[in-house]
Amino acid sequence: MSRMRIVVAMSGGVDSSVAAALLRDEGHDVIGVSMQLYDQSEGQTSFGSCCSIDDLHDARRVAAAIDIPHYIVNFERQFDEQVVSNFVREYAAGRTPLPCAHCNSDLKFATLADRALGFGAAAVATGHYARVDCDAASGRYLLKRGIDPAKDQSYFLFSLTQDQLAVARFPVGGRPKDAVRDYARARRLPVADKPDSQEICFIPDNDYRSFVEKQLPGGPGDGTFVDERGRVLGTHEGIHRFTVGQRKGLRLASSTGTPMYVLALRPAEQQVVVGPRTSLEQTRLTASGVNWIAVEPAGSVQAHVQIRHRHQPAAATVRSLGDARAEVVFDVPQIAITPGQAVVFYDGDVVVGGGWID
Amino acid sequence: MRVYFDYNATTPLAPEVLDAVTRSSADVFGNASSIHRFGQQAKATLDEARSAVATLVGGDPSEVVFTSGGTEADNFAIRGAAEALEPTGRRHLIASAVEHEAVLNTFKALARRGWRTTLLPVGESGVVSPVRLREAITTETALVSVMHANNEIGTIQPIAALAEIAHEHGALMHTDAVQSAGKIPVDVRALGVDLLALSAHKFNGPKGAGVLWIKRGTRMQPAMTGGRHERNRRAGTENVPAIAGLGVAARLARGKLSAEGARVAALRDRLETQILATVPGTAVNGARDARVPNTTNISFDRVEAESLLIALDLEGVAVSTGSACSSGTLEPSHVLKAMGLPAHRTQNSLRFSLGMFSTDAEVDFVVGLLPRLVEKLRGLSRKVG
């Protein structure tokens, strides 16, 4: 690959650090950029409230170690408008949001990519485990799974457009995680042994419920548990506390003694519908905001369809409904199809497309 | 070409300063409080620097207290005066809204502990009006603190007029002269102040050395408690090499104040005029008449300052947006906000500050670069995807 200027989105984690190091070692003109996304300075109402987050410092240390320029850009406003507000709105609407996917398509490969072009960069790289190929036949950019199945993050990238994929680089996507760690150690990166992050970055203490409650205008609304026939079984403190398929924390005893699961959320009535596990099984879903990466099918196509990050893809028939909508019919029923999550259609390793579950 | 136009953040050492710091680091290791010859040698080094600073600001050497820098000097001035005057019932402090954080956040800290604080507004010029001080001051006011020159826009404040009003009401007058000392004439008697803070690294001296000038007879609580250094006003073993450098920097600055001021002003004016002429949608922030000679603050319509700063840096040109915060990201400038500028102008303004090693060739380089960079960033400011 010829030498080019590439902006790397550096989170301070090992994956994006190695992504930057790999590109640097390939001889590219690499610029590290970290995004300050939310204000972590606690309580202090100071002039110029700003924070010194450990992760940003880690990114800076890595940039120094591999000798590249590094900048921290302030995207607090954009992150709040494009990711956090959506997260809160989705919970309030009885859906279970996937903020990382929004952050990728609306921030990293939109606002940040925009900035990168302004700095004379030809590409934007991240530490995602995914791959991009150009399909010679169709001329389209294809998104593919990372080769480490345990780490693959293509699910979170389904909404990247052709323009975004054209400039996207995923340097670690072609490597297993172990190899990435080995590279970090061999390269003596200061984050080589840093644990992977698991939580949603802007949620303190992994407590999304309190976060949503603080952000909701008028506070959370109380509501009722009902069974499939509409009988009231008890009360709850807001539908945002529940997710389809959830079993824990319902504090309901069914008369028959069978475990109860959340089947659906009804925001208008503030109702949580509960029932036995068998009622969670569904064979059909529809999706909106569908992005076709390979090509929009004229009729229906067979695909392996994933409805959660950690879901074993299931065989299904996918049909475009037009207007960025699609219908998925599974060969066998699936447990807990959750509105608000992404549904991504795969043909082997290739992401055919994906959308948001209605 | 690498261009450093961020002299208000810090400056490179003058060669003579580097020499003084190196020599005293190597040769003068004694503790200035010691009685023996080693101590005497260190004490002599401090005294020499003390005299040079006194000459720079028109005070007496006995009134010069060395600190670790401008922030400590401002803290000392405000906390020291506030605590000393507390028993008299004077529990009110006044500053301008465009002060450095060293002053603003010290006010906040004291406000949390019960002091009443008032921030004087400024107009679009960035200048504090004496009328506003007259309206705010009372017989309970302990201290008025207004900077001599502003760090972001360079505006010079009417300190003498403000000091007169402060004294009419029995209050002390402090000025943060960190951005003026060494750049323009600073005379504590002419300004009529009781306290004045300065910092060596803003005029080609080393980091870690500053001064609080305290008018003789001013009642102050010590900044640090400990040994009997600095006439009991600032405990802690003096940083002799840095203070030696401060002394040399003060002497150098004093020696060529008017010639260097005129030279830098000519460069700054040419930079400013040519940017305004070649980049559409630009304007100078703040009054252009009463400014330190090295600073200009320019807003660029439809460009985020953060992006322009990074784009310039990638081309080798270092500028700033005023004060950066600890994570290094940019906040809307509190100075430009206080001047009543609209939100977009508080976020699209860059500060260019020149100094000792700035040249005509550097001005030409920056002027040659900016139109292209600005046009490129403006072309991308639409949303992608």
Q: Helical segment tally of chain A? A: 7
Q: CATH homologous superfamily of the largest domain in chain B, by name?
A: Type I PLP-dependent aspartate aminotransferase-like (Major domain)
- Major β-sheet annotation of chain A: 6 strands, antiparallel, barrel
Count all strands of chain A and give the number.
17
Radius of gyration of chain A: 22 Å
Low-confidence stretches of chain A: 42-52
The top-level CATH class of the largest domain in chain B is Alpha Beta
Spell out the helices and strands of chain A N to C.
EHEHEHHEEEHEHHEEEEEEEEEE
DSSP helix fraction of chain B? 40-55%
The CATH topology label of the largest domain in chain B is Aspartate Aminotransferase, domain 2
**Broad structural category of chain A:** alpha/beta
CATH architecture of the largest domain in chain B: 3-Layer(aba) Sandwich
Tell me the strand percentage band of chain B: 5-15%
Assembly type of the chains comes to heterodimer
Number of helices of chain B: 13
What can you tell me about this protein's structure?
The complex is a heterodimer of chains A (358) and B (385). Helix content of chain A is 24%, strand content 30%. Chain A contains 7 helices and 17 strands. Chain A has a 6-stranded antiparallel barrel. By secondary structure, chain B is an alpha/beta fold. Chain B folds into 2 domains: 3-11 and 257-383, Aspartate Aminotransferase, domain 1; 15-255, Type I PLP-dependent aspartate aminotransferase-like (Major domain) (Aspartate Aminotransferase, domain 2). Chain B contains 13 helices and 12 strands. In chain B, strand 3, helix 4 and strand 4 (116-120) form a beta-alpha-beta unit. In chain B, 53% of the residues are buried.
Task: Describe how the helices and strands are arranged.
The complex is a heterodimer of chains A (358) and B (385).
Chain A: E1 5-9, H1 14-25, E2 29-36, H2 54-65, E3 70-74, H3 76-92, H4 99-118, E4 123-125, E5 130-134, E6 141-145, H5 162-167, E7 168-169, H6 177-186, H7 208-215, E8 223-226, E9 232-236, E10 261-266, E11 271-275, E12 281-292, E13 300-306, E14 314-322, E15 325-335, E16 342-347, E17 350-357
Parallel strand pairs in A: 1-2, 1-4, 2-3, 4-7, 8-11
Antiparallel strand pairs in A: 5-6, 8-9, 10-11, 12-15, 12-17, 13-14, 13-16, 14-15, 16-17
Helix pairs in contact in A: 1-6, 3-4
Chain B: E1 3-4, H1 15-27, H2 37-57, E2 64-67, H3 70-85, E3 92-96, H4 101-112, E4 116-120, H5 130-136, E5 141-145, H6 159-168, E6 172-176, H7 188-191, E7 195-199, E8 210-214, H8 240-255, H9 257-278, E9 282-284, E10 295-300, H10 305-314, E11 317-318, H11 334-338, H12 343-346, E12 349-353, H13 360-380
